[in-house]
Write a structure and sequence with these properties.
This protein is mainly alpha-helical. The chain has helices at residues 3-14, 23-32, 36-58, 61-78, 88-107, 116-126, 133-141, 144-155, 160-167, 171-191. It has one domain (3-191).
Length: 196
């Protein structure tokens, strides 16, 4: 971070634009002020996390990549609406979750050209040590909102407070949703037999 950026932090805090130190708020402010490279920094920093959220919800690499592009396009267009009361990452993850869920609902009844077993085989070859086809099948049967909360909690390791903010609910509601998603996953997982 440059000296100029470090000098900007107290000014942003005085104007109430950031509370505790948040490096992302500095880059948001720089982007809003006309520095296009600041957005590139935010994109590079969060691309993989947004992709992981989208992939966890959509369960399809190509759809997840498309969703990531849509998410960052939305953020680019609407970053001035970011009110800075929450962290940038929380705002970004909320957009990522909402956009991915919308895409999942849109594609829910869409015919898949690739059989599930073929898709799972592709995933297995990518990371054979961490692949459990029963887990994949169980997750694929969950609703998009259930996949979203499980992805945020287990893969992105967000706290219940962060998840609540990302999903637009309080931490207790996030805890309840997480519990219910786990229970639905468990019921499906236990019903999924060992492949023959």
């Amino acid at each position: 971070m440059s000296v100029k950026d470090k000098e900007m932090v107290p000014a942003l805090a005085q104007r109430g634009l950031i509370g505790a130190y948040d490096e992302d708020a500095v880059f948001v402010e720089r982007f809003v002020s006309g520095d296009r490279f600041a957005f590139e920094h935010l994109y590079a920093k969060y691309h993989d996390k947004v992709y992981a959220i989208a992939k966890g919800i959509l369960l399809n690499s190509e759809e997840a990549a498309d969703a990531v592009q849509e998410v960052f396009t939305l953020v680019y267009r609407h970053i001035k609406r970011f009110d800075r009361r929450s962290r940038f990452s929380t705002w970004l993850f909320r957009i990522a979750v909402n956009r991915s869920i919308q895409e999942a609902r849109k594609n829910r009844n869409k015919w898949r050209l690739v059989e599930l077993n073929e898709a799972m085989a592709q995933e297995a070859s990518a990371d054979p040590e961490h692949f459990d086809p029963r887990v994949h099948r169980a997750i694929a049967q969950l609703s998009a909102p259930d996949r979203a909360i499980l992805t945020l909690f287990y893969w992105e390791e967000l706290s219940l407070e962060q998840i609540g903010t990302s999903l637009g609910c309080n931490p207790n509601a996030a805890k309840t949703r997480l519990y219910r998603a786990r229970e639905r996953f468990r019921a499906i997982y236990e019903g999924v037999g060992v492949p023959s």
